[in-house]
Every structure is written in C-alpha cells, then in structure tokens.
Amino acid sequence: TGGRRGPDIISTVEFNHTGELLATGDKGGRVVIFQREPESKNAPHSQGEYDVYSTFQSHEPEFDYLKSLEIEEKINKIKWLPQQNAAHSLLSTNDKTIKLWKITERDKRPEGYNLKDEEGKLKDLSTVTSLQVPVLKPMDLMVEVSPRRVFANGHTYHINSISVNSDCETYMSADDLRINLWHLAITDRSFNIVDIKPANMEDLTEVITASEFHPHHCNLFVYSSSKGSLRLCDMRAAALCDKHSKLFEEPEDPSNRSFFSEIISSVSDVKFSHSGRYMLTRDYLTVKVWDLNMEARPIETYQVHDYLRSKLCSLYENDCIFDKFECAWNGSDSVIMTGAYNNFFRMFDRNTKRDVTLEASRESSKPRAVLKPRRVCVGGKRRRDDISVDSLDFTKKILHTAWHPAENIIAIAATNNLYIFQDKVNSEMH
Amino acid sequence: MEFKLEAHRIVSISLGKIYNSRGQRGGIKLHKNLLVSLVLRSARQVYLSDPCPGLYLAGSPVPPPQPGEPAAGPPAGWGEPPPPAARAAWPEPETPPERPAGPDARRAVDAEPAAPGAGDTLQGGEAAATAEAAWRRAEVPRAAAAGGAGDPAGGADVCPEGPRAAHRPCACPPGGEAGPGALSCAPRPAKDERPVPPPGCPRKRGAAAGDGPADCPAPGSSPLKKPRRHPEEPAGGAAAEEEEMETGNVANLISIFGSSFSGLLRKSPAGGREEAEAEESGPEAAEPGQICCDQPVLRDINPWSTAIVAF
C-alpha cells in the first residue's frame, strides 16, 4: 500500500480512465500523482503498487481585493481527461478557478549538438570541423507538468464539482447556484447552462451540491441539490437547462422528522454507474441507487451509519453533520463504497446484499495484511472487537474514496494519509 | 416544553454558527449557511408554536453580559426554562416536592413533560424572575460569545447543556405532546457521555432512559461539576435589570442577522444586484430586512426575541 505523510489534508482522490494513475489533491493546493508500477515478471504476486509519479502546486491562495475575500487554494476536485496522446491531462479546481494540467514524460534527451557543448555553452566555432546529427539518448525519467489552460472568473459562488463530457471537448463546472459549460480549448468564456439563483436571495431554499455528465450521452447531465433531489437535464432540449428532464426525489419519511431532516437529506455526491443506467447518491446517513427510468424513489437504499440518527444534535454542534462524504462504484457496478467516521469505510454488494465495514489505519493494516471487518455495536450484545458508537472518533473521517475503473483496487483518503488497498484474491464481492 | 428548550438551544447554536462563518477563510459557505438557516427556522417554529404566551409578552429586554463571564463555554442557565414574565399570566412554578432547589438537586428528574405551566424547571424551586434573568443572560453571552467561542462543541467537551439538561427527557413523549407541526428532539436519551469522544447529545444523566428520578451519574462524569454562573436574584432585581438593558448588543445582532437568511449575507438591501452578487463579503452593516412575521404580537416582543423570531 502506498502512503503519503504530510500536514496537508487530502481533499480529493481520482483514478484516471485506465487506473494506471491516481491523482490526489490537498488543502494546500498541491496535486500528487501516483503511478502503478507495471507487474514485475520476477515477482508475479507483487502486482503493481502505486508510487509517487509527480507532485506539483496546482493552486495558490488568492485574494479577491474587490470583495475582501481570501480564496482558498484547497483542491476541491480533480478529473482526468481521456488520454488522447502520450501526455496525460487533468482538470483541477479550487473554489473559483479550474486549471488544465498537462503531464508529460521525458526519458530521452538529444545529445551531440553542433554549436553547443554538453553543458549548453556555445562551442568555439573554430573547433567545429564536422557536422553531426544530434541523437536521442536515454535519460532518467522526468515528469513535467505544465498548466495549459486557466479557466477563471466563471463562478461567483464556490465550485463544488467538475465533470468532463464524453465528447472529450467540453466539461462543466458547478457552484452553489450555477453550472457552466466550458470548451477545453477556450478559457475566456463559458456558457451558463443551469442557474437556480432566485431573483430575491431571500427566497433561496436549495443549492447545487454536485453534478456529473452522463458517461455515454454527451447531452445528459445530472445535478443534485441540498434538498435531496436529483435533476437530469438534456442540453439538447434547451440552451438553459433550468427545467429538468427528470426529477428524482424520494418523499420524506415523516416518522424520521427532526430539526435536522433537511441537513441529512442534502446530497453530498452523485455518480453515474459505469453502465450509465444508474446513479449513486450519498446523503448524510445513506447511499442510494437510482434507476434513470424511475424518478419516484431510489431502487436501493443502504444505511451507512444509521446509529448516528439519534446523535444528530451533537453532530450538528460539532459540525460533523455538514461533512460531505463521497461515494463510488466498482468497475462492474456491483459494489458501492463510501466512507464514514473512525476511519471506517463501507462497501455494499448490490447482488448479495451483504455489506462490510473496514478500517483504514496503519495500526490495523500492515502491507499485504487482510483487512479485518469491523463492527459498530449499538447496544445489545457486544462482540470482542466491536466499537461502541460513543467511542467513534469523529475527527477521523473518510470523505474521499475512489475505485479503480476495472480492478479491485481502492484508494481511501484518511485525513492526510492515502491508503491503497488491492484485492489480490478473487473475492465474493465480484 | 422540552421541545422549546431544545429549539431554544438549537437556535442559539445556529446563530453562533452563522456568526462565526463570517470570519471563515474562503468566504461564507452558502450551502452550510443555508442549511443552518433551515435548522434555525425549524427551531424557531417549534419555539413559537409552543404555548408559552408569557414568554412573548414579557417585553423584558436583554441584560448586558456579565462582566467576567467567560467567552467560551455554555452560559449558565442555558437549559433553564423560559422565564415566566412578571407581567404575564405565567403560573409561578410552585416548588413541587420532587424538585428540590439548588444545583445539587439536579439529579431529580422531571420526567413529566406534560406538566403545564410549570415548565421544565431544571433548577427546581427557582424563582420566576430568576429564571427569567437567567434566561435572558444566557441568550446574550451565547451570541456574544459566538465570535470567541469558535467551534461550538468541538467534540472535546460534553454537550453544552451540561448539567442543566440533566433531567430533561428528550425523547418524544409517548403520544406526542408536540403537535404535528412540532419537531421531535433529535437525540434519544443517551447514556452519560464521555468528554473525549464527541458524545451523543446527552439528555439524561441517569442510567435509564426516560425514567423518573435517575441515579446519580457515575462519579467521574462531568455534569455534576458545572457550576451555575449566576446567583439567584430577587424578583425585584429582574425589574431593575430591565431598566439597565443595553440595547447596543441586541441591535448589533439584529443588524447582523437581519430578518432573513440573505439579510446576513447582503451588504446592502434589495438594490444593487452587484452587491448581492458579493454574497460572501459579509454583512458588515446589513440592514434589517422586512419583517417576516406580521403578527401584531411581534411588535411587543423584546428585541432579542425579535431576532430569533425573525430568523
């Protein structure tokens, strides 16, 4: 497993489309990219592990003098572009500015210049007696990262998500009230496609919390709201997609009503399945699977940590109730994963309906050790290794998780540590 | 009655969060503040819907914060019942035998939420005016301390209710004393919390949930240790305090929070969309927006209640 130490808290984790690269962003505005080592023929059991490939400073803190506001450098989201040539590209965003980074490798350098010597100094021309063609010689691998585009000034509110379109030419960025469509090559303008800002801000009742393009249909995208609803929009229907094509909403269970009902129904993440048929949403206590063909209610609901339902008041006080957990599909859309507290994360097998709680911590997982399932006991019979609800550490939260697009490899961000777990053995989770 | 107390507490916590958010790095987070304002409104509804007319007709102004009162931490008397006003037809809380006076007697559990008028007298036997004074004082330091208190209950301390919530059953009374519109207090009665891990919201000190007079809590648990911040006062003192009201504090808070969610975000009133766009610049001098409740009774409410109601 790879691990990264440091004071900076990881704020986003994303595999690229092949799973060869894993990017993380942190609160300090840095991006660290890990690369999976190719399998070694000598040791076939040590399948590729992830090592640091490149580190760069993506965003710096800025100050908006007009509004007397500091703009945080924290990386909110990273999205990889599909690879179209030898270079890799990714989009990284903070609250206000999206940047396109190009990552290239250099493993050869030209040698044998006629006019310059090895150090680059001009040669004395009198010593040049013949012409030679410079040749490329191998060198130590150098990974170079350069900012190719800066998409600035598109958002008044805080950007919460970006999503690359399947057309590989456009992408969208969403803030609390608006969604903009950009062309990857054009930085000086964007198209606003969703605007839910009310004419009178006093009438504000909901904000956009996440958004994503459909994986196959370049005209479809979904955005989630703080009220727990999802809106599927079709860009071919109208230029401004304020009117949704489909509205996915589950009626509230009146027996669960409390002061905090609205907060816990706010959707913190939405992800299309790889198939494009389903959507996965995360709210404070549950993950839900929605069928695009059924708007009335989710087809599956999984309790992540329902034992917290009776503790919402405390969680409101210590702000934990505002934590935004992400969710993820596995490559075959059969298992979903999300994080929780105490460095626990949960996996739900949609077929077998089994679920497991695992812990990401150095104490409980040595390299190549098998993760032991954990259990939170809520009273009643307590087994030996159970954790009681009251001893959960709410400062250890797993907000960001990612699943390799094809294999059973998961990346778990636990505060400022990154855990990568690989399932070497074919598990029943498939 | 405990819904009202819970609502009361949630209102103050929420106001504190909104207040603190103004200084946050990166600007005001619209999403979080919207959610907080929704909680605030829910709590306000419960607060207003609870039949305690005395509260609203009190007209008693908010006294200035006690000098030397610590900025952080739960203000004393926070969990105390809303004050029966001197003028209102609020029944004096007779001292029922099961409610001995004094801080040590907090163990006694009043498990009867349906007791009308007597309220949830946590400090049994307290004089009406004392409760009123305590309540008023609790409001202001809570809000004034918001700036200094930082994170409310960063999990390292017990639920701020502390001992005052000792015997307030928070679970919905069976049959629901609260009307359909009222919201249940979210946390169930929990066991004694431990200070280090963020506790379940502690509502009961006793071992059993929702029961009558509970056992004394475990010796090591914190609730016993929190002293009350203010001594009992004679009824006359309360009236005198009304005279000493310092409106500056309250006026500031009203101007900060305005009368609606956006009131706290906007620098200037409706005109100037560009300013409105600058949501995050903070309401340094936000003007009070329009009154959102036009019941005549509102005009009689003291300024602090207005701020709460308006929210």
TrEMBL record, chain A:
Signal peptide: none annotated. The keyword Repeat applies. PROSITE patterns: PR55_1, PR55_2. Gene3D superfamilies: YVTN repeat-like/Quinoprotein amine dehydrogenase (2.130.10.10). InterPro entries: PP2A_PR55, PP2A_PR55_CS, WD40/YVTN_repeat-like_dom_sf, WD40_repeat_dom_sf, WD40_rpt. This is Serine/threonine-protein phosphatase 2A 55 kDa regulatory subunit B. The keyword Repeat applies. Keywords: Repeat, WD repeat. GO terms for molecular function: protein phosphatase regulator activity. GO terms for cellular component: protein phosphatase type 2A complex. Belongs to the phosphatase 2A regulatory subunit B family.
Automatic annotation (TrEMBL), chain B:
GO terms for cellular component: cytoplasm; nucleolus; nucleoplasm; protein phosphatase type 2A complex. Signal peptide: none annotated. GO terms for molecular function: identical protein binding. It comes from the Eukaryota. Pfam families: IER. Residues 59-247, 266-290 are annotated as: Disordered. InterPro entries: IER. GO terms for biological process: cellular response to heat; positive regulation of cellular response to heat; positive regulation of transcription by RNA polymerase II; regulation of cell population proliferation. Residues 69-79, 207-219 have a biased composition (Low complexity). Belongs to the IER family. This is Immediate early response 5. It comes from Equus caballus. The lineage of its organism: Eukaryota, Metazoa, Chordata, Craniata, Vertebrata. The gene is IER5.
